[in-house]
Amino acid sequence: MLTLQSLRDHRDDVLSALAKRHIDATAMVDGVLSKDAERRSAQTELDHVLSESNTLSRQIGGLMREGKKEEAEAIKNRTAGLKAKSAELKEAMDQAEAQMHALLVQLPNTPADAVASGKTPEDNVETYRNGEPSPAGGDAKPHWDLAKELDLIDFDLGAKVTGGGFPFYKGKGAKLQRGLIRFFLDRADDAGYTEYIPPLMINADSGFGTGQLPDKEGQMYHMPEDDLYMIPTAEVPLTNIFRDVVLSADQLPQKICGFTPCFRREAGSYGKDVRGLNRLHQFDKVEIVQVTHPDESYGTLDTMVEHVKGLLEGLELPYRILRLCGGDMGFTAAMTYDFEVWSAAQERWLEVSSVSNFETFQANRLKCRFKDADGKNKWVHTLNGSALALPRILAALMENHQDHQGIRIPAALVPFVGFDRIDA
RNA sequence: GGAGGUUUGGCAGAGUUGGUCGAUUGCACCGGUCUUGAAAACCGGCGUGCCGCAAGGUACCGGGGGUUCGAAUCCCUCAGCCUCCGCCA
Q1: How far is the CA of A61 from the C1' of B24 (A)?
Q2: Tens digit of each residue's pLDDT (9 = 90 or more) over A76-96
Q3: Which residues of A in 356-375 have their CB below 7 Å from strand B's atoms?
Q4: How far is CA A286 from the centre of its chain?
Q5: pTM score
Q6: Would you kindly state where each structural domain of chain A is located, as residue ranges?
Q7: Tell me, which fold does domain A4-104 have in CATH?
Q8: CA–C1' span, A396 to B5, in Å?
């Protein structure tokens, strides 16, 4: 959530930044500001009334102790009006505050300066490319065919046992999955990230902290009995570690990572984009998260991008990096780099990672601050990235490293999976 | 799931016959005196949000609600933690 302070101090800058998302937030921002002004004036008045009634209460206390009951009673009568008045003002203040908050949570993050204006994925800016997308090879097979022929993944069985989008991985398919997880975790460990195994369900407060709630509850599986949500990404439990926390400056940066399954309802998805491993309700992912000093976050974003590059190069996959334009960026991000791997068999780019800086947007929701050199508590910056999500990587490995006999395992991965080929 | 206990500022830990308690004290931390330097000792400071140019005011003693002129202290409710019992991987 944007900080109230930023709206108060830099209203016009906020509006022009949000314009890069192609939304006109003028009405909402001005609504926030007017509700805020309303709240403040109610509070000022309320504080005066409370001050007066506190004074009277103290007088009554004094008189009671001295046994001057009648004088005390006389003062008591004067408090009734103050009480009614303060209740009224409190109500007005709370209401203005609630209305202000309701508007504020609807505003997406302001894109960073370097983020391009733009509406669609076509407006994203390619910042790096490694390897060239090969032309469609005539006999390159999509991973869903390979998965069946080599008996690595059983989609139908998943559909029977659970439903569409919940595949079974089996045999070498399962081992490949397990090896990839270890490969990603070991690389994160080497890069200094502390590994966590977090809970797979989160409460509503955590959902709010990272921005899934309100409004996006439809994307998460919800257990109404206990009012818990299945995590859509490890970002949620990992980042919420820092909810309601004040860090000391020397505790920054915090670098943590974790492997979890992720659960997404993906309501509204359809068509070829959801074929095979392209879009699942349950998938595995290793997530990296950093909490940094505000001055450091963009440097950190770059190091996280470099980390993911290293993973893809280890897997020998052709990829490109896009800096998302305002219109294509998620609600909570100030800047996002997407990694896409080329699949000749599907003749398209597959998004395999997303690395973002949220600046203070999540910190403000999480109430995560650090104590600065001047002794003041200030918002931290939070960042995260997939490093990496499994299914599309698996798809890309199968599709890019297929030959006529089967699938070749890249050298860097062999120690983790225990074999160097998958053949029929 | 049942019974009981408990929840106070970074930590420890007072305060529950309601009344100058936002809160004693110790530790930690910051500044100063002393010292060649450090330690010790001594002096001072030391929670957070909001309103206010400031002085200052106001709110917060797990969350929410209530009683009262007045609540950390009483009542209701929810949650966390601990102990015992039950059930169970």
Answers
A1: 22
A2: 888 888 888 998 999 999 999
A3: 369, 375
A4: 14
A5: 0.91
A6: 4-104, 121-423
A7: Helix Hairpins (1.10.287)
A8: 57
DSSP states of A150-206 as a string? TT-EEHHHHHHHT-TT-PEE-THHHHHHHHHHHHHHHHHHHTTPEEE---SEE-HHH
Residue in A350, A343, A219, A354 with CA at minimum distance from that of residue A285: A354
Is the C-beta atom of A51 closer than 7 angstroms to strand B? yes
Give A251-297 pLDDT, tens digit per residue: 889 999 999 999 999 876 666 667 888 889 999 999 999 999 999 99
Asked if the Cβ of residue A50 lies within 7 A of any atom of strand B, the reply is yes
- pLDDT at residue A132, rounded to an integer: 77
Q: Which nucleotide is nearest to A77 (CA to C1')?
A: B69
**Is strand B within 7 Å of residue A377 (CB)?**
yes
Query: Residue with CA nearest B19 C1'?
Result: A61
| Nucleotides, chain B, CB distance < 7 Å | 10, 19-20, 48-52, 56-59, 69-70
β partners of residue A128: A321
| Segment (H or E) for A46 | helix A26-65
Q: How far is CA A136 from each of CA A343, A345, A347, rounded to the nearest angstrom?
A: 9, 6, 6
Å: A233 CA to B86 C1'? 36
Burial class from Cβ neighbours inside 10 Å (0-12, 13-18, 19+) for residue A388 reads buried
Q: Measured in angstroms, what separates residue A126's CA from nucleotide B3's C1'? A: 64
**Are A305 and A282 contacting, i.e. CB atoms less than 8 angstroms apart?**
no
Give residue for tokens 């104590």. A371
Distance from the first to the final alpha carbon of chain A? 52
Residue type, A85: K
The single-letter DSSP state of residue A243 is T
The answer to whether A68 CB is within 7 Å of strand B is: no
Q: Which of A40-54, A274-288, A297-311 has the highest mean pLDDT?
A: A297-311
Report if CB A272 to strand B is under 7 Å: no
**CATH, domain range A121-423:** 3.30.930.10
ipTM of the complex: 0.85
Three-class SS state of A401: coil
Residue with the two structure tokens 């294509």:
A328
